Amino acid sequence: MNMVSKKKQNTPAKRKSSPKYNPIFERMSNEVGGVRCDLGCGFRKAAGFVGVDFRKGPGVDIVQDLSLFPWREIPDDVASIVMTSHLNEHINPASSNPQLAALINLLKSKGVLTEKEVDSTVGEYNFLGGFIRFMDEVWRITKVGGKFMMSHPYAGSPGYWQDPTHINPINQATYAYFDPFAKEPVSGQFYGLYGIYRPKPWKLVSCSYTTYGNMEVLLEKRDIDPSYNVSTDNGLTSK
After folding, report:
1. DSSP string, 165-178
2. Which of 89, 92, 113, 215 could form a disulfide with 209 if both were Cys (CB 3.0 to 4.6 A apart)?
3. CATH number for the domain including 74?
4. 23: pLDDT confidence band, cut at 50, 70 and 90?
5. Whole-angstrom distance, CA of residue 47 vs CA of residue 237
């Protein structure tokens, strides 16, 4: 064996550093009911929940812009319950800007930006559908069988139109895009919408609404199953 091969053999493998998650999750995981997350909590966080918001304030445990992905301080499969109250209508549903993605790739190729710099400041910058990516990130942090509870204005209602920051209209069929087995409540027919984008799978448990008021929706996280036709990269994201 030559000296080069000996040196290579004796060099320890480089260990990948583990993510540094907020310690609040370890503490709450041992409590009755487990971890519960209030995304977009504002200054009125639900009692017993981890508060996440883009602004610092009373009750905000994690400062995170929920339109930037991934949410690095929140681990995978940690939450038994996730809730949002008047947040979903604020999530930009658009895909990422292709010109911006091309510019970032160009700057990386020329050595102006490093992968680490982009990862820490921009995060993912090439995805199809911002609201789809948001839902996938909620799926990531939720345990299989965990619940996602949400309330928001019905698309086109006075409450939706009154706020100048509302940009994501949602109606009773929207969440059928996230459930491979969602049925139309009146006819009982399958919506057949899930296969269009193939996001991470949810079960649509309940959806109540008034067309002039709010929607109350409950989803349950499904596990990945090959029959759902979910690809390894979710069929959506790439860098």
Report:
1. T------TTGGGGG
2. 215
3. 3.40.50.150
4. confident
5. 35
